[in-house]
């Protein structure tokens, strides 16, 4: 641990700039949020991708969105096996403790995780098949979707199709978590699927009744 | 799935506002990022808490930070058991595919997850002890830290102490991932621990040599 | 002129921070605006006051608002006497060259200029009466309004009343500029009066038909 | 005045969006600024041009910059003739009442006002020569600069040269205001000239000792 030291200078510089010049306008807001606790209305499950600008898109003010970000915005199936499950823990905390009213699963175009899944399932990246590939095993969550898109010939259309399958798989898996199912059945929680084209930031939302995405 | 429909109207309104009035200034930047792919310099592992304003703090422009967010910003121990491990997958993708130069573990004050761990370990929340409590089993990652702070009498000092122990545990666990260890040993990657007081946004950084946090 | 040197360091630091970290997202937008020329849809006439955050309020993107700012957001009467008239020049350029569709006169609470006019007209600040007081002579534009509010006993109500009188005087003066009158008559231009309470940023708009301000 | 009504709907929509979603974070800051009064450290004299993003460039928080904006960011010569002089009034208020420490005259590339002055002085726009052209009479302030650049053959180089001459003329005129001269002599006030290329937002600052602009 002797090698862990301070912050990269460029990030420290920016923090100090922000702290001195931007933060003062909001300091009372932050102080009150710390004192009263958070009351986010919605949870967003999004990708770690540096190009997915969630807080900008929704004009979010600090304290409004509870955000879980993982590779390819996946929700694995419910597995109460006593092991560590970060995504499930985040969802449970959002639903049971914070009592959020909405969960949004937000996918996006040009997703490296989705592309990795296609490569893995079509034999172009054997390293991802290894048992100890953490990325590969995580992307297994997306495998059922691959079967449904594998016959699409155009590579970029196939990729978008799997990005959207992933959102549906995650929504279905979410409904498999008993506390999510109960909250949805009781009308306390709504689930939403959205897909963003990160090249023009167009947004499509998922309509579960017809199982289709459409533009907004 | 028939109940999954569109977006909550208030979020849709804000998206459309942003898309029409703010996005145009950056559209070419987004288009190029989509085309050329992301090249983030750093990964941040932070909490899902709606009050943790990472992208603001670091004056981040779209495309700079690869962000994983989970409850209490934890990194579980390396477990190559073939199961789904979202945090490990995100770290592996950041280090091996994106080749980020820095990983920041960012903790914060008033953390509901850390408070939950204290309640669980001190017998005040038995529900978290159940095998099927996803939150409880996730917070098990933080248990070794509880033993080191349990004798602190003042509740809020104990809480901050455990928030900081959590950062150290995560940094140590990170070094247990073979691909992280190799990158750090080769000088390709540096690890950093920071703790933010969300009531005044003061930042403390961790100095591994003396195992202590100090103000910036 | 030998004393004129560079920039105050704190402003240079912030410029460089902005240039390096924020500007890149918008650089293509700026480049195109420079190349194609500005096409602002509206002109705003506002106060120089550092607390009047026009561009924030209207979610303005660069290139949308043509902004003239002077003490107390005043438009003097039309005076084609061959002398320098900065406000009239700005209005003429906006209407004849840029062909803006709207002119907003935006007043605000706690206006030091308006307070100065009250002090001057009620004998509490004789310096402002001197012929060579540039501030005093500028505030003469507001004098006709003082007569209409001078009998209001409550000082802060009188102040707000004069702030709103000032907006109406400026709107009336605007209609005295022949190129403004013509554009309004032809339906090419609309005039608007707004008053902002800078303590809570509430906005009131002026309805010319009933000569009254009302909340939005 | 019966035609003056409310706000253009698109601006009202944006105001309401800002008021509801962005303003709450800063409301306490605004409230205190209203209560305590403004204390801006610097005054900026800039152009009305919609592409000159002053508050962005200097990472300004509300309350920091006192801003006067007119066509071509000009300061006319000191004229204590008892008439309305908006620019002089703004400067006097900044120096004597607010006691700002710095005045920045900020010019920019692609300035329509400067181009208009060139057209007027070189016989290409006779309308600007009319006595009642408010734009033309305002641009007379810049005329002495035209004589110094008129022999430059390349049109765009001549334009930039006049933009920079204008900044110097304004700085010299500023020193002709007795209250400015005194404050500078006493070391209470510094003057600064900057020129921004709005196509790439590069900034040049004026060094009075060598009478030259150089990059930052």
Automatic annotation (TrEMBL), chains A, B, C, D:
Its cofactor is Zn(2+). Its EC number is 4.2.1.1. Pfam families: Pro_CA. GO terms for biological process: carbon utilization. It catalyses: hydrogencarbonate + H(+) = CO2 + H2O. Zn(2+) binds at residues 47, 49, 108, 111. GO terms for molecular function: carbonate dehydratase activity; zinc ion binding. Keywords: Lyase, Metal-binding, Zinc. InterPro entries: Beta_CA_cladeB, Carbonic_anhydrase, Carbonic_anhydrase_CS, Carbonic_anhydrase_sf. Binds 1 zinc ion per subunit. PROSITE patterns: PROK_CO2_ANHYDRASE_2 (PS00705). Reversible hydration of carbon dioxide. Belongs to the beta-class carbonic anhydrase family. This is Carbonic anhydrase.
């Amino acid at each position: 641990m002797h090698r862990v030291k301070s912050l990269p200078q460029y990030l420290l510089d920016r923090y100090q700039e922000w702290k001195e010049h931007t933060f003062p306008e909001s300091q009372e807001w932050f102080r009150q949020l710390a004192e009263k606790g958070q009351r986010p209305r919605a949870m967003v499950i999004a990708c770690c991708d540096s190009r997915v600008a969630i807080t900008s898109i929704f004009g979010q003010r600090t304290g409004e969105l509870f955000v879980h970000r993982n590779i390819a915005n996946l929700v694995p199936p419910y597995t109460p096996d006593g092991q560590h499950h970060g995504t499930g823990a985040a969802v449970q905390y959002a639903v049971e403790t914070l009592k959020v009213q909405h969960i949004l699963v937000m996918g996006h175009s040009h997703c490296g995780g989705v592309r990795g899944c296609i490569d893995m399932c079509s034999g172009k990246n054997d390293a991802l098949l290894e048992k100890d590939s953490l990325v590969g095993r995580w992307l297994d969550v997306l495998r059922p979707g691959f079967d449904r898109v594998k016959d699409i010939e155009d590579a970029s259309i196939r990729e978008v199709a799997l990005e959207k399958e992933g959102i549906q798989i995650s929504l279905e898996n979410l409904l498999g978590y008993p506390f999510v199912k109960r909250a949805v059945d009781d009308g306390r929680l709504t689930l939403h699927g959205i897909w963003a084209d990160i090249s023009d930031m167009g947004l499509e939302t998922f309509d579960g009744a017809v199982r289709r995405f459409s533009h907004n």
